[in-house]
Amino acid sequence: MVSQEQRRRQLAREKFLRQQQRRTAARRKARMRNAVIASVLGVVLVGSLALYTTGTLRDDGENTAAGASASPSAEPSKAPDPCEKPAEGKVEELQFDKEPPMKIDESAKYTMTLDTTCGEISVALDAKGAPHTVNSFEFLAGKGYFDHTKCHRLTTQGIYVLQCGDPTGTGSGGPGYELKDENLKSDALKKDTYPTGTVAMANAGPNTNGSQFFLVYQDSPLPPNYTPFGKLDDKSMAVLEKIAKAGESTGMGDGAPNATVVLDKATVTKS
Questions:
Q1: Rounded to 5 degrees, what angle do the CA atoms 256, 259, 262 make?
Q2: CB contact set of 167 (below 8 Å; sequence gap of 6+)
Q3: Which H or E element spans position 270?
Q4: Apex CA 134: angle with CA 175 and CA 217, to 5°?
Q5: Which residues lie across from 199 on neighbouring strands?
Q6: Predicted local confidence at residue 248, as pLDDT
Q7: Residue ranges of the chain with pLDDT lower than 70?
Q8: Distance from C-alpha of 6 to C-alpha of 9, rounded to nearest angstrom
Q9: Which residue among 43, 63, 69, 165 is least crowded, i.e. fewest CB within 10 A of its CB?
Q10: pLDDT by residue (tens digit) across 109-120?
Q11: 36, 114, 253 from 80: Cα distances, Å
Q12: What pLDDT is recorded for position 53?
């Protein structure tokens, strides 16, 4: 016959075994949970890298090149600045309530000239394919909106562009109004590539074009989501390539250009 003391010890042992089983099961669940978390983190990192290499372009302050590869082991060394000091003057952060009224002649030729610290950049504007965009640039340039502004972003991996047109220099600025997308069915954008020499609008999604634009210095794989509105000539391409050669500040393919790229003056002329 089992004594009361033996019965008490047996119940205590069974209770201990049940506790051990619960602890083992909890550890197993924790390991599985951690494995899942690690797997999800891996997917997030891979997804972020994919976004980085495709180089989504935004003008709302979010990095259109979200995510990154492993941090460099040492601070990247900067190439010499190939550009001159900016002209005297300050940025006028102008804001407007609505898109300017249409005034351009869509059948005429328009040229945007950017007098930059790195050399003159000339853009042959496509008034027929992107009339509202060209009209906006003619209006903003006439107001001095772009004068003394910095080109704030250079991308050197995945896509190859210099981004300008933000008076705040942060990637979040704009004129106060937004334009609809234009010219996205241009033959130049076939095969989801923006060809070398293209000038196009940065945006934060469909029909959110403001004042920020990018200049393509090497064929860049991008979907046709960014209004192309101009082309660079050979002389301008040489200036752009000089800027690109100096690299960007992070050493990771997407950051502020090492070159001091300032638009001293922007003008749009009709011929």
A1: 85
A2: 91, 92, 93, 94, 145, 146, 149, 173, 211
A3: strand 262-270
A4: 90
A5: 215, 230
A6: 96
A7: 1-78
A8: 5
A9: 43
A10: 999 999 999 999
A11: 46, 22, 17
A12: 33
pLDDT for residue 31: 46
Distance CA 60, CA 57 (A): 9
Please tell me the predicted confidence (pLDDT) of residue 30. Answer: 47
Q: Tokens representing 93? A: 């952060």
Q: How many CB atoms lie within 10 A of CB 46?
A: 11
User: pLDDT at position 12, please?
Assistant: 56
- Other beta carbons within 10 Å of 267: 15
- Dihedral sign computed on CA atoms, order 149, 155, 156, 161: negative
Q: What is the pLDDT of residues 207-231, one digit of tens each?
A: 999 999 999 999 999 999 999 999 9
Token pair for residue 244? 């690109």
Collapsed DSSP state (helix, strand, coil) of residue 207: coil
Find out whether 183 and 122 touch, Cβ atoms under 8 Å.
Answer: no
Half-sphere exposure (Cβ direction) of 177: Cα atoms closer than 13 Å: 16
Note the CATH architecture for domain 78-270: Beta Barrel (2.40)
Q: C-alpha distances in angstroms, 60 versus 66, 116, 167?
A: 13, 24, 13
Token pair of 37, please?
């978390």
